[in-house]
Amino acid sequence: xxxxxxxxxxxxxxxxxxxxxxxxxxxxxxxxxxxxxxxxxxxxxxxxxxxxxxxxxxxxxxxxxxxxxxxxxxxxxxxxxxxxxxxxxxxxxxxxxxxxxxxxxxxxxxxxxxxxxxxxxxxxxxxxxxxxxxxxxxxxxxxxxxxxxxxxxxxxxxxxxxxxxxxxxxxxxxxxxxxxxxxxxxxxxxxxxxxxxxxxxxxxxxxxxxxxxxxxxxxxxxxxxxxxxxxxxxxxxxxxxxxxxxxxxxxxxxxxxxxxxxxxxxxxxxxxxxxxxxxxxxxxxxxxxxxxxxxxxxxxxxxxxxxxxxxxxxxxxxxxxxxxxxxxxxxxxxxxxxxxx
Length: 341
Hints:
This protein is of the alpha/beta class. It is 31% helix and 21% strand. The protein has helices at 3-10, 21-38, 40-48, 69-72, 104-119, 132-135, 141-153, 165-177, 188-197, 222-233; strands at residues 65-66, 84-87, 98-101, 126-130, 159-160, 182-186, 205-209, 239-242, 251-253, 259-260, 265-271, 274-279, 292-298, 307-316, 322-327. The strands form three sheets. A seven-stranded mixed sheet has the order 5-4-6-7-8-9-10, sandwiched between helices. Strands 1, 11, 12, 13, 14 and 15 form a six-stranded mixed sheet that branches. The chain has a two-stranded antiparallel ribbon with strand order 2-3. It is globular and about 60 Å long.
């Protein structure tokens, strides 16, 4: 791959969002070299590991930047004036992560392409956001994503409903009567609060939780949350979205809590006691990879860092899906996480 191709990537080249498995490895390695040379924080991190950057010839050798550095450092590839700065949720006692966005267009291209891949045209849906805690603060990447999907939906009932649960219940009943496809995307505690007061049969509605109790309810496992929502709404499945402030792309679960990535996003497992050893679950056999901590390559993170070592514990299955089981001990509680007993 020629150096000019990297410049094309940095100008939002369409190859990112039309990549296949073979192209992914090539682009990831070129992007690694580009970010090593032009991202000061990432370069210092790699050098601190005493890794010869020029000998990294496989995506399994790429060093992953600890996600916590987004709280203490400005993570940018080359210097630029950001169009926007996304901030993570959290209490006043927790320093938020800050993701400097060079161009919001790239974020929009990523989440729109991901939604199209998993759910089709937004115009076919009525899209309802139940995200009160996120709307109470500024600079939420999730709110920006849902707001644009609401706009693309164009349905008169699409929008954010905050705490007006009675109005939301009436709208959902009307939409169900009209057999309208609905996506109800909400923070977990808000969906549970709504389900407690307004249980109903939802035959044409997809309920998608984004995680997050934020001290509003007793912590539950994702399975417990989904069982309650399925019972209250007569659903066979509850969907989930996996995203974070530090990423520009999302993974989606449509069944059993198993998340699938778009082609430009890939998840790996690292061992807690050996963070430089990563696996992606694509070895022989059909067994799941043993529990570990999730590392993520997001090719859309061109202008920050594409190689993120998260604090989420999970497993990766042989079919490429992954599950999130909880958080690493002693790490800050992320607003989108669910605890596991």
